[in-house]
Design a protein that fits this description.
Distance between the termini: 23 Å
Radius of gyration: 19 Å
CATH superfamily of the largest domain: Jelly Rolls
Shape: globular
Low-confidence stretches: none
Oligomer: single chain
Strand content: 15-25%
Helix content: 40-55%
Number of helices: 9
CATH topology of the largest domain: Jelly Rolls
Mean pLDDT: 91
Number of strands: 12
Length: about 220
Amino acid sequence: MKYLELGQKPELMEQVRSVQSELSDAAFRCFRLCRFDTGEFLYTEGKQAGCFLILLTGSCKVFKTLENGRTVLLCLYDDIQVIGEFELFGDPIAKTNVQALTETYCLAAFVQDQRERLLADNSFLQFVCRQTCAKTDRNNSNIAINLLYPLEQRLVGYVLVMQKNGVFSANYTLLAESLGCSLRHLLRTFRSLCDKGLLQKTKAGYRLANIAALEKIAGNVYRQ
């Protein structure tokens, strides 16, 4: 994580002002702009959360490690979102992993220094309550998706969120674990999408050959 001055990223001012409009001046002053690089962890499961974060731009995946060592994908974040509310209000140990999938910018409040100020601020508490209610509703939908939706739809939803410049690549063994399927089933689904002309296998990964058709299959899967 790298701290920045707000003036260094004028392109983020729309998102910053949106958050600022929700908070009192005192609460907003508790936050600093920060950047996470691609692949960097915002939170690591089992470790203490040092900061409460408000996601401004970028994409993050939220996943959990199960007792058998496998991981399960919980959701993806790609819009203004609070991260770390459970750790702020209760046990500071992170309950899930949150990893940046792209360069990600957040507003960060150092919990040890700012916790008492934030928890005493009504505007902040109301903002977090609204965000948490919306997040809970979306997460309930994602639980249903993981349980009930076919792999093809979940995979296409993930590909659309994770693609970069029209190409998707990943560690496919880990992806299979995250989507709750075998590697064989995952690769068979990729082949099926290629046979339908929706994806094209390349050396770099899979090129999205028909984005409109892929979006129709995915619906709102994993969209936050």
